[in-house]
Design brief:
The chain is an all-alpha fold and 60 residues long. The chain has helices at 2-18, 24-56. The model has no long low-confidence stretch (mean pLDDT 91).
Length: 60
């Protein structure tokens, strides 16, 4: 999930910011690598922390 989402978001963000030119592919792949390095740990660790937090919260 993190791989696909980071691919799509980095593609469109790169496309909007730098446009489609000769160096687009290299810049997009570098942006995708960087965004995946953030997205994977976030997708792995955040749900566990949020689940623990919601167990402590009492809903009325």
């Amino acid at each position: 999930m993190a791989l696909g989402m980071s691919c799509i978001i980095s593609f469109f963000t790169s496309l909007f910011h730098i446009g489609f030119d000769v160096s687009f592919t290299g810049k997009w792949l570098a942006a995708w690598r960087n965004s995946f390095l953030i997205a994977f740990p976030a997708a792995y660790f955040l749900p566990k922390g949020i689940r623990k937090l919601l167990l402590k919260v009492k809903f009325v």
